[in-house]
Structure formats: C-alpha cells, structure tokens
C-alpha cells in the first residue's frame, strides 16, 4: 500500500513517499525540502532537521511514531559535519535508537547535503501479507 501525505514533500521522481507491506513501513529517502514552499535551507543542520520532520510526517501518516523506526540509512555529502548532524539526529529518536548506517556520498539530488531513508514497524498491526505464517508477523 502506498503512503502519502501533504505534510512531506512530494516525490521528485518515480517513487512513493513510503510503501507499507504488512506491518512494515519503508520510507523513501527524504530530501530536506519544505513541503509547503518546496525550498531547501542552505545549512546542513537545518537540512537535517527538515529531513527528520519529513520522515516524521510520513511515519505519522502511516499510524506510527518516530519511536517505531527500526532502521535508517543516512546519506551526507560532508562527513566533517557528522558530529553536529548526529546531535540533531539523536534528538529526534528516543532510546532504543534505530539501527543506522551513515555514508558520505559525492552528491545528492537537488544539491541536498542530507538524505535519510527509514524502515518502521506499524504498532498493533499484524503482517497480513504473511497470514501469520512467517517470522515477520511476530514484529
């Protein structure tokens, strides 16, 4: 099932904001676009805050919370800003924090400095795709 909300920026390509499969939510890489203005802040720290706000909007639209995020992949164009970005990231999640991988990349779409994708679990839901016959249903 496709998940979409006007509280996060529309996809800038042929992909969904998120897809739900059973009780799992797969959030596409979010750029730091303001969903109202379509603009992007110039500072990496402001971009990190916007990306996390976009993820929260999508997760909320799916019926989950940031504490339901299990895994993130963080892409940055400059790892020298890791400490500052990590502090902002840490404030967005309660413990236990999601599993995470962080990579420095040569470039991101639209000149962004930060992009994050996420996987979350929808609480209280069963994995209807497995019909109770697979381990994922236990989540």
UniProtKB/TrEMBL annotation:
Top-level taxon in the UniProt lineage: Bacteria
GO MF, one example: hydrolase activity
Pfam families per the UniProt record, alphabetical: Ribonuc_L-PSP
Record's keyword annotation contains Aminoacyl-tRNA synthetase: no
Transmembrane residue ranges: none
Keyword terms of this UniProt record: Hydrolase, Plasmid
Family: Belongs to the RutC family.
UniProt-recorded name of the protein: Rid family detoxifying hydrolase
